[in-house]
Specification:
This protein is an alpha/beta fold and 412 residues long. It contains nine helices and 14 strands. It has helices at 48-61, 90-103, 136-149, 159-170, 223-241, 254-267, 296-303, 315-390, 394-404, and strands spanning 12-18, 21-30, 33-42, 68-73, 79-85, 112-121, 127-135, 153-158, 181-187, 191-198, 201-209, 245-252, 271-274, 284-287. Strands 8-4-1-2-3-14 form a six-stranded mixed β-sheet, sandwiched between helices. A five-stranded mixed β-sheet has the order 11-10-9-12-13, with helices on both faces. The chain has a three-stranded antiparallel β-sheet with strand order 5-7-6. Strand 12, helix 6 and strand 13 form a beta-alpha-beta unit. The longest helix is centred in the C-terminal third of the chain and has 76 residues, at 315-390.
């Protein structure tokens, strides 16, 4: 498969692969305004080659995709831990995370990939950190798909952080001005993802499968069981944090979210509101099943990829990306330097040419007035001769004055 180079720097293409379904969110910028395209496809096979071919077909159906390629891994496919570390020094936190990652998994270090995000640094010298761990074979499949497509993966994000980024976008940054704890439940065709926030900070996340959910066979999910799991989780969260929830927000597949919200209202005492997947997002083009599927995570990653900081790409690939970026920056700096020198040199040459032209013009003007100057000089010489000739002969001059009543100019 030989996919042409379709990606540009400014646009973003976010992909999510979950339970045999591909979800895509493509953001292109037109006059600095984002235009969002959503699409989905059921994979024809679970093999890596077949998935790559299906992705290529979906991109082709959209007229070719543009942008930096990023993946988001659904929350239920990632192990997460919120841990407290006795340091606020970034280097010490990084070293501690290496140990913590092995403590929370039975796998060898070569079999896992981890990333982390510092949620908060406390005045007492402790840091609250979100740790994410995934099996390396899962990441290897994403990078293998990218190689088959002949593209470079820039980031593999954690679904929980992508979901929090999406919420910040649709709420237009309102979370920064809100205090208190709240829950967002994101329901998809086969699973529910939960994130808890304190203000804008992510404080806990969990995901679980929807029982009885078989979309392809037409079986509806057991939403009653989902409600029980959500209530159980929020009860444990309040007990652990010793804090009451302010409200619950529900999003995801429109039909599923609309059915889940009233059940949560009946089962809890909290205010429950529905949040549409594309609320406050303009220029949306969708070829996807928005009623039965959630695109919140890929939307959040596509719109604000730079704010999603956790990256589950292998470190050697990240280092290679950083080296390539440094090389590109050096080359760009060198090119700009050469252009600057050329520009300065060009201006200097132009200035010399302009000054030479002025001097030549002055020479031409001087040549035009030279005969007049020569005539004036000759007249001055003649006057000097007359003065010399009349020196000591005032009587002759007086006679001339009397006869002609005229004294030549310059003679006294």
């Amino acid at each position: 498969m030989n996919t042409p180079k379709l990606f540009t720097k400014d646009d973003i293409l976010a992909l999510e692969i979950t339970d045999g379904v591909l979800k895509l969110a493509q953001v292109t910028f037109k006059k600095h305004k984002p235009a969002l395209t959503l699409a989905s496809r059921v994979f024809s096979s679970m093999s890596t080659e077949a998935r790559a071919k299906d992705i290529e077909g979906l991109l082709a159906s959209l007229g070719g995709a543009r942008g930096t390629l990023v993946f988001t891994i659904p929350r239920h496919m990632v192990m997460t831990r919120f841990i407290e570390l006795p340091s606020i020094n970034d280097n010490e936190i990084r070293a501690m995370i290496e140990v913590e990652a092995l403590k929370h998994t039975p796998y060898a270090s070569d079999d896992i990939i981890h990333s982390y995000k510092v949620i908060r640094k406390d005045p007492g010298g402790y840091s609250q950190v979100l740790l994410a761990i995934v099996k390396k074979e899962q990441i290897d499949e994403y990078t293998a798909i990218a190689r088959i497509l002949n593209v470079t993966v820039d980031k593999i994000a954690v679904g929980a952080e992508s979901l929090a980024a999406w919420l910040d976008v649709v709420m237009k940054g309102e979370l920064k001005r809100r205090s208190g704890h709240r829950l967002l439940a994101n329901i998809d065709s086969r699973q529910v993802s939960l994130i808890f926030l304190d203000g804008e900070n992510l404080t806990y996340t969990r995901a679980f499968k929807l029982s009885g959910s078989m979309p392809q066979s037409g079986n509806a999910p057991d939403l009653g069981a989902a409600v029980n799991e959500i209530v159980k989780t929020l009860t444990a969260y309040q007990r652990q944090k010793n804090a009451a929830l302010e409200d619950i927000m529900v999003t995801g597949g429109a039909g599923l979210a609309h059915a889940l919200a009233p059940l949560l209202r009946s089962a809890s005492t909290f205010s429950v509101s529905e949040v549409a997947q594309t609320m406050n997002i303009d220029c949306v083009t969708s070829e996807a099943d928005m009623a039965g599927s959630s695109f919140c995570e890929v939307i959040g990653l596509a719109l604000v990829a730079d704010k999603v900081t956790m990256n589950l790409l292998p470190q050697d690939i990240i280092r290679r990306h950083e080296e390539n970026k440094v090389k590109k920056d050096i080359i760009l700096t060198a090119v700009l330097g050469v252009l600057t020198i050329a520009l300065i040199s060009g201006l200097a040459v132009k200035d010399i040419i302009q000054k030479t032209a002025i001097v030549n013009k002055l020479d031409e003007e001087l040549m035009l007035i030279k005969p007049g100057v020569d005539k004036i000089k000759k007249m001055q010489d003649d006057v000097a001769i007359v003065k010399e000739a009349t020196a000591g002969r005032p009587a002759a001059v007086n006679i001339l004055r009397e006869v002609y009543s005229l004294t030549p100019e310059g003679i006294s």
